[in-house]
Design goal:
alpha+beta, six-stranded mixed β-sheet
Length: 275
Amino acid sequence: MARFVAAAIQMDSQDSKWGNLEIAERYIRRAADAGANLIVLPETMNYIGRDIVEEAETLPDGPTFTKIAQLCWELKVWILAGSIYEINPDDPQRPFNTAFLVDPRGVMVAKYSKLHPFDVVLPNGVTSRESDRIAPGNAIVTAHADWLRAGLAICYDIRFPEMFRLMALEGAKMFLVPANFTVNTGKDHWETLLRARAIENECYVIAANQMGKKPRFTANGNSMIIDPWGTVIARSSDKPGFILAEIDPDYVTQVRQSTFTLDNRRPDVYELKKK
């Protein structure tokens, strides 16, 4: 099966949607010129600020989709457009956090709304409830690109291995992971979690993270591309930009035929017993 080149774009998105889109376009063009066939943008790539309801868009006809679709058609690339705030008609005050995948024709072939809101109550009393602002999605999503089936996830999702295992069982051989992962947890957990998801499912992981100071926290950066053996094959520097790595679909098969993790599962005993 043909190899291809993937890019992960690292951004410091702020509260200027058009400024963010201009920066994203610049890096998309540079990545395509460098040979990228598949480009992954970070979470909430077009807007990070406090007016998320006002900045939410419809799909597939909002201004961000239009821009991404035009670039896909012009450059003949696939783009996973990180994520944007998508209007939620059932609860307009809580938009979805939605990633969407666009093919080289400019057609949206899949969209995924983040399943797991970051809702925490810390021992010191600090509370963060993302679900107060963002409505969770309700479906696991995989989609076939030209080379491999991709599983779509966003940021905090990487802490839930059940989701990634199900995507692998649905045929995913790479995971596309836009994120806005914090420094506080990212410095210890980001790479470990991503490599674990790659190793246990024998899949590539293409993870594009935000960096820089945001309204609520500082983002971790450290975007990376990981192969099915768990090796980090590309890593970003501590600044906005993009990284590239060659993706070899045959290597997924090679790794799976050496570790047999998916083949040796025991679903007959994977059941939580009632006490």
